[in-house]
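Quick one, T. Sequence first:
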Amino acid sequence: MNKHEQWHLSPEAAERYEQVVARYILGPWAPLLVDAAGVSARERVLDVACGTGVVARVAAERVGPNGLVVGIDLNPGMIEVARRLSAPTGCSIEWIERSALDLRLPDGTFDVVLCQQGLQFFPDKPRGMREMRRVLSSPHGRAALSVWNSTGCYNSAVGEALAKYIGDEIAVRFCASRQAPAKGELERLAKDAGFSRIAVQVRKLDVHLPPPDSFVLEHLAATPVASVIAAADPEIHKRIGAEVHNQLQSYMDRHGMTFPEETYFLLAGCD
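Structure tokens:
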């Protein structure tokens, strides 16, 4: 996968994505992003590259039954899973299968645009940012986006294990989600798209994952390298899990592993 390729998942991998990635890796960050955007009751919110909807569902709780939440994702498997999951009680979410580069929504439709760990996959980031700005209302519209600011100790360990036992190409594909714009590029993208009051912050969180011996394989089954991993010998599976366990030994506790993660939050407004 090169840096411009989309994050495509099979329907089965999308199911696992919700169970593993959305729950353990992205889920803890979702309320923080919604908080950073200041989402409140009755607002209109668009979740771009929504995946299986972990951010959209948090946003729906905040806007309540009189608000509006729309989730958009290019991947049909992700949208299918999102539609099957229950929205918060009394709230509704509209799910649309569509590219972030061509939202096909009216200008000024939303108060808030959110995008959690999606921007790094846009093949045309300036266009994606312009689309987000276009659909925001002025002068109170605002956007909150997150992208990883490093590979992180867990993904690094998994990537090294994949390189060792599967191959470098698969390791690169797995780590592609962590190849994101740096602070300066985020600021430039937002400015060029017409945003104002731009701020890029580093947010930190201790992430807890189950024991890596089994979790790593479950995680890999929820990524674009799932088919390659599934075809590998079961002994290779054991070695990958054991390798990650050994590399992250210092983060182990009785229930799994807990380690610090960091991400950039890009916050921007519309004058």
